[in-house]
Amino acid sequence: MAKNSGRFVLRFSSVITILLLTTCTIPVSRGNAEDNAFAPKEITSLRSDVDNSELRVEDNTDLLPSDSTEYVSGVKLSVRQLEETSVLSSKIHSSTLLLNGLVYTPSPIGRRHILLAGTSVVALFDDAEFTWRNLEGLPGLKVLDVNGSVIVPGFIDVHVHVTGGGGEAGPASRTPEAGLSQLIDGGLTTVVGILGTDCVSRSLENLRVKVAGLKDEGLTAYMWSGCYHVPPPTLTGSLMRDMMLIEEVVGAGEIAISDHRGSWPRASELLNIISEARVGGMLSGKAGLMHAHMGQGPTMLDPLWELINISKGAIPITQFYPTHVSSRGPALKEATVKWVQEGGRADLTSDQEGESTAFDTLVEWGQMPNFPLDRLSISSDGFGSLPLYDTSGKLLKYGIASPQANLKMIQRLVLEANWPLEKAVQFSTINPATFLSLPRKGRVEVGADGDLLVLNAQTLDLQFVFARGQMVKSPTWTKKGMFER
Q1: What is the C-alpha separation between 254 and 294, in angstroms, rounded?
Q2: Neighbour tally for 267: CB within 10 Å
Q3: Does the predicted model carry a pTM greater than 0.90?
Q4: Whose CA, among 17, 52, 141, 255, lies 20 to 30 Å from 391?
Q5: What cofactor does this one take (predicted)?
Q6: Which residues, in sequence order, are bridge partners of residue 125?
């Protein structure tokens, strides 16, 4: 890719596949005729037929550049064939141009045209900057006119039981592992896998391989090292070694605090964990956080405050990352307000079907003057168990968490609470990316990873998902894992 007068100038060759959902005209540059010679004048290439199980690519060979030697013409693509095409394109790192999107970076920047190449965002054009000459020579280009739909960064979920969780109601209650399409349907392009209560039949070795599999299938995936129990299990013999030697390990978690399923660790034990996480993060260039599972115990956040006080502030409050803070009753919510106002960060577990605790909490905190919402994230607890206990500890109810909970939470904040989209979407994009020290995630900008969601501008329903530059979801199909039906 060469530069000419500060612009990307590329030469058309190889395959050009035009992907358009509806008949439309692609806007061409206001530039001169030579610039526009590379542009198709009107494209009706891909439309939804009456039967949505098939998409038809019409013969538009007259719209392609004269030196193009390969093209798709008069071929019907089934959903399965389109999926296979996507898998192939992920192997060859094709390029995609998204036209006419209302882009949130997550801040709103208006209508833009986004060019993805390889795994990254390589250009953001406004109308004045865009000409087809910019794309001269780009092989394998796919053009998608989103026609005023919203484009936001792909979602980051810091707490997903990708190998399954649960088990609190006996062996039959172990929840199933994550399917690729289930994660994608939740708009998740980056996940952090985790172990919970069970670290006997669930292992870090299994988690590490599952995370690697998700990466092979097109997502970005990391993991926490440890589980509820202290001392936590590790892959290499120590947390510090895990962080330095295992690329995917971002910190310690989820360590149970104030929970009847935890180990009720002493301050010295927790101090050792947070110290190893912090130093391991320094040596590996990672965030090095301790992701703390908060239970319903009366000690609430006190064990974390104790560590800060013992170290006399040497260990910063930002090294701790408590989760489930809205799900354990009003006392923990009140304690979390102080925690966040003092500079701490916290994660709320998104509401499942029929719940409203996290939604109500965010609405309440959003109304507080100068409350730092940029210190909060949301996570789905996807594929983890949803046990409900009475005051005596008896299990009353059992369910499984959906990885689509974050998307539904953001939709509710915008459509029901009337929040601006940029205010709501931060909890799944820029905020967790900042907490985890992932500078290429959670944002739409040149050089960032090509993780994008295309949402209906009115309903915020998910239309397209791009992960690491490749389309993994359209309105008619979602990429599936190897053994998904």
Answers
A1: 9
A2: 12
A3: no
A4: 255
A5: Zn(2+)
A6: 113
Assess contact for 432 and 447: CB atoms under 8 A: no
Note the pLDDT of residue 386: 84
Spatial neighbors of 68 by CB under 8 A, at least 6 apart, are: 12, 13, 14, 15, 16
pLDDT in tens, 8-55: 333 333 333 433 333 333 333 334 444 444 443 332 232 223 232 332
What the block records as the tokens of 235 is 């892959």
**Residues 131-182 pLDDT 10s:** 888 787 777 788 999 999 999 999 999 999 999 998 888 899 899 999 999 9
Same domain, 55 and 182: no
Number of domains in the chain: 2
Residue 124 and residue 466: Cα distance in Å, rounded?
16
Give, in order, the Cα–Cα distances in Å from 190 to each of 200, 276, 452, 468. 26, 25, 11, 10
Give dist(CA 279, CA 285) in Å, integer: 10
* Residue corresponding to tokens 């601006």: 420
Q: Catalytic site residues?
A: 381
Cα separation, 47 vs 314, whole angstroms: 60
